[in-house]
Specification:
It contains 19 helices and no strands. By secondary structure, the protein is mainly alpha-helical. Helix 6 packs antiparallel against helix 7, helix 13 runs antiparallel to helix 19 and helix 14 packs antiparallel against helix 15. The chain folds into two domains: 228 residues, Up-down Bundle (Growth Hormone, Chain: A); 191 residues, Growth Hormone, Chain: A (Up-down Bundle), CATH 1.20.1250.
């Protein structure tokens, strides 16, 4: 049987086409990211109605708005790696059910303290969903299109934010702010049920657990996936997930990936939170300020798709480095073109393209860099460190405003983290092309094979 498995693996070329079942897995994983985008934005959409209903001040909602992000941070770091022990499928289904229940319970709380607690606990579940949806989507994608499809999965986050706004528009008037969370609970619960029926386990995970499973071999033939169970995977089978993440020369690349994710999310969420307000302070009309926010997120959606194609064609190194340099220059350029609206909006669109599209690319690096045994742990840790930047970004903007910085100065300062991200990618790429042992397990970071 072992000889048959070895021969079978050696015969499988990289996929020239994608089987329908692979599309189904990618679609389900993308829907998980839609839930992520909906969950992150839900409280923002419900906030005006909640403030009116409870008779509270806007500032009092600050802890509520950050509680979910902080919960995702903790969940990504402490809980996402559980999938490296029990499998991607059960971890995703259980965490989605968890989020659905907590969304429903959000609608029955009566105090701000309860609201903060329940949003934090819901965030723990989303911290498990995100890295494992990305990992499973990558594991069912052929090597030739892996980055493109991982970034398609990741783009669900932006779509989820848009969907959340559309749902809020229809449900808040008849049902109040609670309608947003009841709707989210129903949709998330339905997705969990759909995944319980349709979602298969990662084939790479099954090979780790049952390397002689005839059914797994048949599925590999059917889906024509490239060989993932190489020498690196074999050597990682008996190691702990943390040993896989930090061992065999992966410590320096892991730290660089963390730095890149932290700095990029710091810049992304800083801009997402403050761009409309900063543009308004400069003199943009209310409508034009709203347009800048739409351009920022719209650019991010385009970046998800176009960068994935470019990375699969040319490799991570130069594409990601050039992307973040472009992002830094676009943000800095915005500070110099604030009185030319057309150019300013174009700069904001390119900034969104770079930071949101680039974040999906960073997720993609985590998916291809770590062996199966440590993939969820590695992706979860990188996501968790990035979430620290996401939490600090809006806070940093408020601090700079309190120090009487001008809008131009604040925008210019926000370009710094993006350029640090570019430097981190350059260093990570140089390591992957060196004789470092980790280069064996992450060839795609430097040049695409």
């Amino acid at each position: 049987m072992k000889m048959e498995l070895s021969k079978a693996r050696s015969r499988f070329p990289d996929a020239k086409s994608i089987h329908g079942a692979q599309y189904m897995v990618v679609m389900l994983c993308a829907l998980c990211m839609v839930v992520d985008g909906f969950d992150v934005q839900a409280m923002s959409y419900a906030a005006p109605a909640l403030i009116k209903d409870w008779g509270i001040g806007k500032a009092m909602l600050g802890p509520v708005l950050s509680a979910g992000l902080f919960g995702m941070l903790v969940g990504s770091v402490l809980l996402a790696g559980i999938a490296d022990r029990i499998g991607r499928r059960p971890a995703l289904i259980a965490s989605l059910m968890w989020v659905a229940v907590l969304m429903a319970l959000t609608s029955i709380v009566h105090t701000l303290g309860q609201l903060v607690a329940i949003r934090f606990i819901a965030g723990l579940g989303m911290g498990v969903v995100v890295p494992n949806a990305l990992a499973l989507g990558g594991e069912y994608s052929p090597k030739r299109l892996r980055t493109t499809l991982v970034m398609v999965v990741s783009s669900g986050y932006v779509i989820g934010g848009v969907v959340g706004g559309a749902i809020a528009t229809f449900v808040i008037k008849p049902f109040g702010w609670t309608g947003v969370f009841y709707s989210g609970a129903i949709l998330t619960g339905f997705l969990a049920l759909l995944m319980l029926i349709l979602l298969p386990e990662s084939l790479q995970f099954r090979l780790l657990r049952r390397p002689n499973d005839d059914k797994t071999v048949d599925l590999i033939r059917k889906y024509r996936l490239d060989d993932e169970f190489n020498q690196t995977e074999q050597s990682a089978r008996k190691e702990s997930a943390l040993k896989v993440v930090f061992g065999h020369g992966r410590t320096r690349p892991t730290v660089l990936l963390w730095l890149a994710s932290f700095c990029n999310m710091l810049s992304a969420y800083f801009l997402a939170a403050w761009i409309p307000l900063l543009m308004s302070a400069i003199g943009f009309s209310a409508g034009a300020s709203l347009l800048t926010g739409m351009a920022f997120w719209g650019g991010g959606l385009i970046g998800n798709y176009l960068l994935g194609y470019l990375i699969d064609r040319f490799g991570y190194g130069w594409v990601m480095f050039a992307n973040f340099v472009l992002g830094g220059l676009s943000i800095a350029g915005l500070a110099f073109f604030t009185h030319q609206p057309e150019i300013a909006v174009l700069c904001i669109m390119f900034a969104g393209f770079s930071v949101f599209g680039g974040q999906s690319g960073l997720y993609g690096i985590a998916v291809v860099f770590y062996p199966t045994k440590g993939r969820s742990t590695g992706a979860g840790l990188a996501s968790g460190v990035g979430r620290v930047g996401a939490v600090l970004g809006p806070v940093l903007g408020g601090y700079l405003l309190s120090r009487s910085w001008t809008a131009d100065q604040i925008i210019l300062a926000s370009a710094g983290p993006t350029l640090v991200t570019a430097l981190s990618i350059a260093l990570l790429s140089s390591i992957s092309r060196s004789d470092d042992p980790c280069a064996v397990s992450a060839p795609s970071v430097g040049t695409q094979s």
